[in-house]
Amino acid sequence: MTPPNSDRNATAGAASISNTNTNNTSATAAAPGASPAGPQERLVVTEHRLKLGKKTLDYTATCGTLVLRDFDPGYASVDKAKEPAKDGEPKADKPRAAFFFTAYTRKPDKNAAATPNPRPVTFSFNGGPGSSSVWLHLGILGPQRVACDTMGNAPPPPYALVDNEHTLLTDSDLVFIDPVGTGHSRMAEGERASEFHEYQRDLDSVGEFIRLYLTRYGRWGSPKYLIGESYGTTRAAGLSLHLQDKHDIFINGVMLVSLAIDMQTLCFDHGNELPYALFLPTYAATAWYHKALVPDLQKQPLADVVRAAEAFANNAYVVALMQGSTLQGAARAQVTAQVARYSGLSEAYVKKADLRPDPFRYFKELLRERGQTVGRLDTRFLGQDPDDAGEHTETDAFMNNVVGAFATGMNRLLKDTLKFDIDAPYVVHAPIWDKWTWKEFANKYVNVGASLRKAMQANPHMRVYVASGYYDLGTPHAAGDYTLSHLGLREAGRSNVKVSYFEAGHMMYIHQPSLVRMAGELRAFVSMG
After folding, report:
1. Where along the chain do its domains lie?
2. What is the Cα gyration radius of the chain?
3. Helix axis angle, 199-216 to 231-247, nearest 10°
4. Cα dist. 278→8, 198, 444 in Å?
5. Which of its termini does the chain have fewer beta carbons within 10 Å around, N or C?
6. Spatial separation of the C-alpha atoms in residues 250 and 110, rounded to whole Å
7. 259-309, pLDDT tens digit by residue?
8. CA pair distance 91, 74, nearest whole angstrom
């Protein structure tokens, strides 16, 4: 999940579950060889049954920490390796982090015909940077999910979990990864945050966890998938190549939810005109949803409105933006009128904004006369500020709706169902995005599209699934489309990319109709091998 201001930092600068566990709960306090002075491995294994209509799904849940040691092949060559540890152990061999994860592994159906094909395994993570894996875990993929109504509204506290008849566990085993600083994942004492909270170092640590999991649990022979959301798509795109280059791990597919792999499409910096055009179709969808468009547009279907806004944005609007202050007179007035028409804003406001209304102003301005604000990550959700005079909203109305429910759900799941009993807080979302560094992208926009393209070229069997929400103003669908069309893929590569659009926001799966369709598409994706 993308934090409220992360785009400003993107440049370098009918089911039931048995929770009795059938008395098969086991735990290990520490793995053999773990250093008593460093992070410890602690794993809890429980057995469960999920009823899916007339069928049952028996599975094993494993949650806890694996200790990462030297997760960078080049680590031994840097100055840290020359420095002996206090206990005499070489620095590069010391535990460096405890990585928390939750894994679900389906047991074979005794009544099903034997199959020679191993089950796929899907590694899942969210974004931020600084988010735990709770959103995809309890939103769509795991055997339980947060209870929401059809639109996606959470109920009043203390919230609830419900069995998830749409879980991907039917077709793939699942491993939810919490990067260091999130969930219960922590770096070792003496480690520097820069060793984890940086683009490449994040790939190093998460990549090493994936390698370790595949080795520890004997999954090298399984089809392998990655799924990431928001910054998790940045991580997934980078990992697709990193796993090939560093660990010789070739994956079968990548699922990218709310695409964010070219930050130039998302950053409203002075002189960068691209995002204004790419955000306009989502402005149009938002205004349509809240009945703030002019009558002739308002009566049209959403898809038609979005297509019309895209046609204007990709043609006349882009040309106008490129002209800068030289666009004057009737031509400027015409573009002003069209931006107002598709955004739902007044012509006077568009004129004052120099044809360039940014999203943080848009959240406040669109429904100002109604005394309401719209959410950022899902613009269907409404908020209210103390007054209606400011430029920016106090909070994201969407996040207010979901964060308490997901945090409660995760804490209840770990303690009550998975029996992972610990007093330390589970960090749902750590505020580290503003401290995140991007050494490889110094003085330029972050763009990891090349990594995805190279991985696809090296592995022509690798497929890509992209999910985009029409009401997402964190990672708008048009920005994702632009990114995909500029990857440089040849025809064969483009045929391996599937994009789906949903009438919801950043976490489109909280919307019941979107959940049903998206879950079906994900199951089909991993079933293709």
Report:
1. 6-264+402-527, 271-395
2. 24
3. 60
4. 16, 27, 20
5. C
6. 31
7. 999 999 999 999 999 999 999 999 999 999 999 999 999 999 999 999 999
8. 13
Reading the block at residue 106, the tokens are 């389906």
- Neighbouring CB atoms inside 10 A of 287's CB total 26
- pLDDT for 318-349, tens place per residue? 999 999 999 999 999 999 999 999 999 999 99
Residue type for position 434: D
Distance CA 365, CA 385 (A): 12
Helix (H) or strand (E) holding 524: helix 512-527
Distances, alpha carbon 481 to alpha carbons 4, 119, 228, 264, 442, in Å: 22, 32, 17, 13, 25
Percent of all residues in the chain with a pLDDT value above 90, rounded to a whole number: 81
Q: How far apart are CA 441 and CA 324, in angstroms?
A: 27
Integer Cα distance of 264 and 272 in angstroms? 8
Q: One-letter amino acid identity for 456?
A: M
Q: Scan for tokens 């010391």, then name that residue.
A: 94
Q: What is the residue type of 194?
A: S
If you average pLDDT over residues 489-493, what whole number do you get? 93
Which two three-digit tokens encode residue 444?
Answer: 């330029």
Question: Dihedral sign, CA of 331, 357, 267, 302?
Answer: negative
Write out the H or E segment, with its range, that includes residue 80: helix 79-82
What's the rounded Cα separation, in Å, for the pair 115 and 83?
51
**Gap between the Cα atoms of 140 and 168, Å rounded:** 8
Tally Cβ neighbours within 10 Å of residue 267: 18
Amino acid at 214: L
6-264+402-527 has which fold?
Answer: Rossmann fold (3.40.50)
